[in-house]
Known about the structure:
Elements: H1 4-10, H2 16-22, E1 30-32, E2 38-40, H3 42-48, E3 55-61, H4 71-84, E4 89-93, H5 98-102, E5 110-111, E6 114-117, H6 119-123, H7 129-149, E7 156-161, E8 165-167, E9 177-179, E10 190-192, E11 194-196, H8 201-208, H9 212-220, E12 223-227, E13 232-234, H10 235-238, H11 241-248, E14 255-259, E15 264-267, H12 282-291, E16 294-298, H13 303-318, E17 324-329, H14 331-337, H15 350-369, E18 374-379, H16 386-398, E19 403-406, H17 408-411, H18 417-429, H19 444-456, E20 460-463, H20 465-476, E21 484-487, E22 507-516, E23 521-526, E24 545-546, E25 552-553
Parallel strand pairs: 3-16, 3-17, 4-15, 4-16, 8-11, 17-18, 18-19, 20-22, 21-23
Antiparallel strand pairs: 1-2, 2-14, 5-6, 6-14, 7-12, 9-10, 12-13, 14-15, 22-23, 24-25
Amino acid sequence: MLTDIEISQEATLKPITEIAADLGFTPKNLENYGAYKAKVSYDACARAAENPFGHLILVTSINPTAAGEGKSTVTVGLGDAFNQLGQKTAIALREPSMGPVMGMKGGATGGGYAQVLPMEDINLHFTGDMHAITSANNALSALIDNHLQQGNALQIDPRRILWKRVLDVNDRALRQVTIGLGGPVNGIPREDGFDITVASEIMAILCLATSLEDLKKRLGQIVFGYNYQREPLTVADLHVEGALALILKDALKPNLVQTIYGTPAFVHGGPFANIAHGCNSVMATRLALQTADIAVTEAGFGADLGGEKFLDIKVPTLGKVPDAVVIVATIRALKMHGGLKKTELKNEDVTALQQGFANLAKHIENIQQYGLPVVVAINQFVTDTEAEITCLKELCHKRHVPCALTSVWENGPAGGIELAQALLKEMDNTPHHFTHPYAPQASLEEKAQAIVQKIYGGKEIILGKKARNQLKVFQAYGWDRLPVCMAKTQYSFSDDPKRLGRPTDFSVTIREFVPKIGAGFIVALTGDILTMPGLPKVPNALNMDVTADGKAQRLF
């Protein structure tokens, strides 16, 4: 059996100019990065903005497990399937973060015969967007420390600087550091730390910005710390938003690539959904919507994280509600939610499947709470038995939710036809009345409580001492009416990653709020969530290599 990278390297790619032409772009609209990937110019984005929106399909999933769900794979295969049915389709995906690629997470380009290409480029440096975000973030850090060194006219309190440096690696040793040591010429000593690049507010801003001017405005609104009077200080106070926007001027342009079968794919922006809002850029999604009849996009991790944030944080800026939502599930993963260990998943176990279905059922209920049509995609594995497939279909049928077997990893677009047809039927026949789980004018505490109770199925939130004190400060500055972005484990509805299935009667502890004013939301840190991951005992990097002629090996 071929690996993902072997399949991708056997594929014959079209020149990116041909892919772009299918969307109405000319070579002058592109900034090529080699023959098979390009950025779309601002002029082309502006012209596309005059077009009406097509249909939007959001792909999300159950809570992820070690068994794998294949959300990105289904997203790519579904786009190919729509195209095969004669529907002009474009895909909008997030960019992978190289840190987790080298660690334990799979890439974000799909798999098997449902991939976006060139996968080794996308999973590594791609067009340099991650490096630009890293550079802009760290330039701001350097400018803050230089301001301290050069007289500190803003009276920045070094003890209350919120802004951290970032790297696109998993490096736990850098979570807490001390900088400025070595005497007066080396700066002001203070505590600092590193986040992973995808956790940077600049990543969130890039993904929510609608133009270069909007990007600059949002950068200026970043609150990087407080002065000695405990008043918030912004990037605009430092007068460096223009310099940061200059660093990011090319990174903001959406990236265009293709699938194995030539479906256009805009791969742009990559915030994680457990520590950020988990959606690709608004500009890329809009391009897909305005150059195709159907846009297929995904949100990170399960519907309780990326799905919720797509609907509550991204949709108001995007200006388009999904016409239907796909929840990806595997029988293997549902059996894990039903209590089986990973080593037992090859064994038929209808009872464990029935118990694990509770997780999928809650996600279905959540999407229905938003008033949106939902279709379950059963991502098929060779170990799935007829009894298990029949059982899962019956469980979905009892809830009056259409489901479709998908086998796009193995069969490419042919394996997604059933799902595509089910979605076309839902989009045409199902009216929806979109609603949020909380009112926009609700307080931060009320919004967090609504998410925990309505989306997670929990009992209540518990605010730590620091979080309670922060709410008073945020209220004074008018930040308490912003949307809340829950930073929570992806593995469970609760804040305990070991509580699989559908836990009930649990509380979620918020230990700290982090203002992301430029992005336009407040992050709520729950449980033991970390903004700089570490590497596992046996990282993926140990298997990776490159041949003498530069060909990637064992990337995935």
